[in-house]
């Protein structure tokens, strides 16, 4: 069962509703559950349909490469760079790379999209991700090299 704070619900209604379509989400205010968001009957069948991969533009890719290359772990900056679920997957993916602080990247992934550091969630992200590690990681390494040479 997932729990979200009332403030998070207010600020990210669409994201919370998407999660509520998959299962019950508890809404918490001042440390206690005040409401539940539950999927309507038949929502499980709709949720199991394959979804389209989110868009990943060159501009978004360049912004994320720059954030990663500069070692910026601030969620506020990452959130301005694009879709939180896509970015959380990128952070989880980079947690396995030697040049990145695993703990900080996983914490960032969780802040962007709760649950992304779990194996099943990350595997689903990989299956539908618009981000291709074979392209993204070499671009990132090249940018990191450029920054270190400057």
Would you write up a description of this structure?
- The protein has 150 residues and is mainly alpha-helical.
- 57% of the residues lie in helices and 10% in strands.
- It has nine helices and three strands; from the N terminus they run βααββααααααα.
- The chain has helices spanning 6-11, 13-20, 43-47, 58-69, 75-79, 84-94, 102-112, 119-128, 133-149, and strands spanning 2-5, 25-29, 32-37.
- Strands 1-2-3 form a three-stranded mixed sheet.
- Strand 2 (25-29) and strand 3 (32-37) form a beta hairpin.
- The longest helix is centred in the last third of the chain and has 17 residues, at 133-149.
- The protein is elongated.
- The termini are far apart.
- 20% of the residues are buried.
How much strand content do the residues show?
A: 5-15%
- Low-confidence segments: none
Number of strands: 3
Number of helices: 9
**Strand arrangement, major sheet:** 1-2-3
| Overall pLDDT level | 86
Structural class: mainly alpha
Shape: elongated
Cα gyration radius (Å): 17 Å
Distance between the termini: 48 Å
The helicity comes to 55-70%
Q: What's the main sheet like?
A: 3 strands, mixed
Order of helices and strands: EHHEEHHHHHHH
Characteristics:
150 residues; mainly alpha; 3-stranded mixed β-sheet; 9 helices; 3 strands; 57% helix; elongated
Secondary structure elements and their pairing?
Layout: E1 2-5, H1 6-11, H2 13-20, E2 25-29, E3 32-37, H3 43-47, H4 58-69, H5 75-79, H6 84-94, H7 102-112, H8 119-128, H9 133-149
Parallel strand pairs: 1-2
Antiparallel strand pairs: 2-3
Helix pairs in contact: 4-9, 6-7
